[in-house]
Amino acid sequence: MTDSISVPASVPDPELLQALRTAGRFAADLRWSDLPAEVQARTGLMLVDLLGVTVAGARTAELKALQRAWPVVEGPAVLLGTGRSTQPDTAAWLNGAAACCLELDEGNKHAAGHPAAHVVFAALAQAGASEQPVPGVELLAAVVAGYEIASRFGRATRRRADLHTHGHWGATGAGAAVGRLRGLTAEQVAASTDAAAGLVYATPWSVVLAGSFVRNLWAAGSNVSGLVGGRLAEAGLSGVEGTVGRTLGEVVGGLDVSPLADGLGQRWDLTGGYVKRHSSCSYTHPAADAVLTLLERHELRPDAVDRMVVATHRLSMPLAAVSTGSRLAAMFSLPYVMAVALRAGVVGPGELSDAWRTDPEVIAAAHRVQVVHDPALDARLPDERAARVTLVLRDGRELVEEVPNPVGDVGHHPFTAEQVHAKVAALVGADDARRVRRTVEALADTPDVRPLLRKLP
Q: Residues in domain MmgE/PrpD N-terminal (predicted)?
C-alpha cells in the first residue's frame, strides 16, 4: 500500500472563463483592414526584425548542429535560414530556437518578455500547412491577435522569482493565432488558447544562468503548444475550462485576471515593443548603452577605465555573476556584457564567440565590474528598466551615466525602419535582408502566403 496525496479540484474562476471568451472573440473577429496604420506599420517592422534575427540564428554553429540531430522531414512549413521546408511542429521547434539563440529578438517590457517569439512561428507553421490558400491579411491578423493576447497574459502572470519569462504565458497567444488560422469559432479559439496554456514548461532562471541551450527551446515549445491547442480545440477535446488558471495561476506563480481584457482592441501592446541593439539579455542593455555613451562623450580608451559599478533594479540582479562558459551564459552575465561593451564598443554575436569569452583581458575587465541593487530603480519598473553606471578611471575621476531604458525602446531612442533594415543586413547580408523585407511588405496584398513564405531565406 502506498501513501497518496489528495489534491482537491479547483473551481474555474468565472471571470477568467469570461476573459478567455473575450480573447477568443477578439482573435476570431479581428480584421487587418480595421487596424490603425501605426499598428500595421509596427507589425511589419516587428516581423522584419524577428525573421531576420531568426535567419541569422539558424546559421549559427549551434543551430546547424541541432538541425543535423533533428529529424527534418520534408513538409509545407518554411525552415528559416536553411532553404528547406518541413513539417509544422519541426518548423516551430527549430525556428523558435533560432529566434532566441542570439538574444536579438523583439520584446515587450510591459509583458515582461517576448510575445512575438512565442507566437509568430506557430502562425507561420499553421499557415504553411494549410490545405487552403491563406490570404496575407489573415496571417497578419492572427499574428497581431496572438501578440496582443500573449502580452495580456504576460501582464497578468505574477511569475515566481526563480522562473525565466520564456515558455509559459506566451503559449496563450500561439494558441489564439493558430485557432484563428484554422478558422475556428470564437469559442473554439478561446479553447485553443486555454489548451495551449496547459502545455507549459518549467523554466528555472538557474538553467539560463548556467548557459544551458535547452533554454532556447522554451519559447519554441510554446509555439508547438499553440499548434497542439488548435488541434485539440478543433477535435472537440478541449473547451474553455480555465486550465490557464491552474498552470499560470498555480504552477508558474499567480494570475491576475483584470489585465486580460484590459484595452483589448483599443490599446495595442504591439506598438510598445522594443528592438534589441545588443546580443544579450535586455536587462543588460541600459548599462551597456551607458558605457558606450561615456566612452564616446569623453573620448575614452578602454584602458583608461579601472573598474565599473552598475546600479540596477531587482530584475537584473540574477545576472550579476561573471559567466562565460557558453554563448547563452555570457549573454546573461552583466559583467561580461559590460566588459565587451568597454573593450569592443559593440555587443554583437561576434563578441559572444569562444575567442572573446576566453580572452584574458575581457575576463579581467568583467571581474572589475561591481553590480549593486538600487531599490529606487525598482519603483520605476516596468515603464523604465533603468541602470546607472559609474566608470572609475585610472586617473581617479568618476564618470556617471544613467539610462532609463535600452536604446530601441519605443520611449527611448526607438529604432527607425532604416535602422531595423540595417540591423538585419548586418546579420544576414544585404541580399537576404532584402528578401525578408520584400516578403513582409508583400504579405498584406497576397491572396496566399504559402508560396510567398517560401521566398524567405
A: 25-241
246, three cell numbers: 491552474
Single pTM value for the model: 0.96
> How far is 285 from 319, CA to CA, in rounded Å?
12
State the greatest distance between any 2 C-alpha atoms of the chain, in Å, as a whole number. Answer: 75
Tell me, letter by letter, the H, E, C secondary structure of 216-278. HHHHHHHHHHHHHHHHHHHCCCCCCCCHHHHHHHHHHEEECCHHHHCCCCCCCHHHHCECCCC
* pLDDT-based confidence at residue 1 (cuts at 50, 70, 90): very low
CATH number for the domain spanning 294: value is 3.30.1330.120
Contact 326, 332 (CB under 8 A): no
Q: What number of residues does the chain have?
A: 457
* Cα(108)–Cα(86) distance, integer angstroms: 30
Shared-domain flag, residues 272 and 286: no
Give the pLDDT confidence of 401-457 residue by residue, as tens digits: 999 999 999 999 999 999 999 999 999 999 999 999 999 999 999 999 999 999 999
Q: Does 266 lie in the same domain as 366?
A: no
Q: Is the dihedral of CA 183, 189, 193, 198 positive or negative?
A: negative
